[in-house]
Amino acid sequence: MWDQRYSEEEYAFGTEPNDFLRSLLPQLPDGKALSIGDGEGRNGVWLAEQGLAVTSVDASAVGLEKARDLAFRHGVSIATVHADLADFDIGRARWDIIVSIFCHLPPPLRKRVLRDAVAGLRPGGMFVLEAYTPEQIAFGTGGPPTADLTMTLDSLRQELTGLNLLHAEEMEREVHEGRYHNGRSAVVQVLAVKGDTP
Predict the structure, then answer these.
(1) DSSP calls for 42-55
(2) What is d(CA 118, CA 159) in angstroms, rounded to the nearest whole number?
């Protein structure tokens, strides 16, 4: 599915970073960043523009090729890893920031990936997530086709045990990201830190 979607000439979700991620710039740490489900690279490339050493992981080789092209056009470099998140080793105490933007996974895999993300952050490292909530299904403006692939704040609080949530909110907002995220949306946003506030 994703190779087919990313085979279109235009960027499916645009080339600009996610609004929520961009709004956090003053709080983001320096160092090594991991962007999971980074697709065509709009968020990973933006992080690289901020001076971070970025690794973008995605299951679509087509998307990652476009991510490398986008990085080249922006004068930055990113490391790309073609992998299913079920097989990708996040590592332990390796990352200063891990970003998950609209990366919707089946619940058992999501729980494992988020647990691994907590372990993968260094002390003081930050985790950023925006995802659709079950209410998004009624909006039909983007996101997964079934509610089981969405997220709630209550579930994320449990799945991110070990992190201090600095911002955690479910809301409705306008999302305009390319052709496939466009309109009024129901989302959950999280900014969390491992250990004390940096």
Answers:
(1) HHHHHHHHTT-EEE
(2) 9
Which domains, and CATH codes, for the chain? 2-194 (3.40.50.150)
CB contact set of 18 (below 8 Å; sequence gap of 6+):
42, 43, 101, 102, 130, 177
1-16 confidence digits (pLDDT tens): 787 888 887 898 989 9
Q: What is the pLDDT of residues 57-83, one digit of tens each?
A: 999 999 999 999 999 999 999 999 999
**E strands, the chain, in order:** 32-36, 53-58, 79-82, 95-101, 121-132, 163-177, 181-194
Residue 95 to residues 43, 113, 122, 135, Cα–Cα distance (Å): 16, 14, 6, 32
